[in-house]
């Protein structure tokens, strides 16, 4: 099997390494370099950086239309394997390959689209998974070859769960990929969808239930980071104590958003509509991210203040 591996994000690197070890990759297809945080210099996608280190050939077209199709066809690859690539493949492109595969980090048809890990955490799911599917014309609508469940304990962040998915993917995908007798089935169940996560998705509604805020803080880390206003300035809440499944629910006497106290071993106690959560890490304005102890050392007046 000769594979065109289409991927962009860091989550796909371990699978790329495993495919390379098996000698399966003919070409790595990834997104163009993009402006960095300061917008002055172009930054290569993580997949490109690692692919070049491995000695793989990399192709970065702006679009995958005629010119790109002709270039990719010259490699005579018989399979396309996509994992968080970021572009939709049309029928002409897919016709270049005898077999097509897509790795999707959810239990399809749940959370079709671009942000399934974020959605699983944000919705306080008790499990998620990885699906290997055939690439269809609709977004993540293709038939399923196999799927694997991943239990969630309610402490995962988008960062930690992405890392877990990336570590599991090679041992899950490769056996199915190399099985010449593999079969696929239609997706069953009610589809749900995920969409692009935007910076404004980090804005915390402090009237929300405690579980929702706990989940939002974790789902938004490391980006866009959940935030509220303290004295009119944004403060990012980047870490939260314990599991969302272990929150003790009661009705606080304090106004939702109140920073009530510091609790040793847990963090900064935050009152919400139906209980308390404990903030372990904070990113104040114009400062570096820090633990809640360090934050209070610099903002001793924060206790009793109300986030907005």
From TrEMBL:
Residues 1-173 form the Formyl transferase N-terminal domain. Its EC number is 2.1.2.9. It holds the Pfam family Formyl_trans_C. Keywords: Protein biosynthesis, Transferase. One of its GO terms (molecular function) is methionyl-tRNA formyltransferase activity. Residues 198-299 form the Formyl transferase C-terminal domain. It catalyses: L-methionyl-tRNA(fMet) + (6R)-10-formyltetrahydrofolate = N-formyl-L-methionyl-tRNA(fMet) + (6S)-5,6,7,8-tetrahydrofolate + H(+). GO terms for cellular component: cytosol. InterPro entries: Formyl_trans_C, Formyl_trans_C_sf, Formyl_transf_N, Formyl_transf_N_sf, Formyl_transferase-like_C_sf, Met-tRNA-FMT_C, Met-tRNA-FMT_N. It is an enzyme of class 2 (transferase). The keyword Oxidoreductase does not apply. Transmembrane segments: none annotated. Belongs to the Fmt family. Attaches a formyl group to the free amino group of methionyl-tRNA(fMet). The formyl group appears to play a dual role in the initiator identity of N-formylmethionyl-tRNA by promoting its recognition by IF2 and preventing the misappropriation of this tRNA by the elongation apparatus. This is Methionyl-tRNA formyltransferase.
């Amino acid at each position: 099997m000769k594979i065109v591996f289409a991927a962009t994000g860091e989550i796909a690197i371990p699978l790329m390494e495993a495919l390379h070890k098996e000698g399966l990759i003919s070409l790595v297809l990834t997104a163009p370099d993009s402006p960095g945080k300061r917008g002055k210099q172009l930054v290569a996608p993580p997949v490109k950086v690692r692919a070049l280190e491995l000695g793989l050939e990399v192709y970065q077209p702006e679009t995958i239309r005629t010119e790109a199709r002709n270039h990719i066809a010259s490699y005579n690859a018989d399979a396309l394997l996509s994992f968080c690539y970021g572009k939709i493949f049309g029928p002409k492109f897919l016709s270049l390959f005898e077999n097509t595969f897509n790795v999707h980090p959810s239990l399809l048809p749940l959370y079709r689209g671009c942000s399934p890990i974020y959605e699983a955490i944000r919705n306080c799911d008790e499990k998620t998974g990885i699906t290997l599917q055939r690439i269809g014309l609709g977004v993540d609508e293709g038939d399923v070859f196999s799927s694997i469940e991943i239990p969630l304990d309610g402490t995962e962040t988008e960062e930690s769960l992405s890392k877990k998915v990336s570590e599991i993917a090679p041992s899950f995908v490769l056996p199915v990929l190399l099985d010449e007798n593999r079969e696929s089935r239609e997706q069953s169940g009610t589809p749900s969808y995920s969409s692009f996560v935007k910076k404004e998705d980090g804005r915390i509604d402090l009237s929300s239930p405690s579980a929702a805020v706990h989940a939002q803080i974790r789902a938004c880390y490391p980006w866009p980071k959940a935030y509220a206003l303290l004295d009119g300035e944004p403060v990012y809440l980047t870490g939260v104590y314990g599991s969302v499944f272990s929150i003790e629910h009661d009705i606080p006497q304090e106004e939702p958003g109140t920073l009530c106290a510091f609790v040793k071993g847990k963090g900064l106690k935050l009152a919400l509509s139906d209980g308390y959560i404990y903030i372990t890490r904070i990113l104040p304005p114009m400062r570096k991210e820090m633990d809640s102890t360090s934050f209070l050392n610099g903002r001793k007046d924060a206790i009793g203040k109300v986030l907005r």
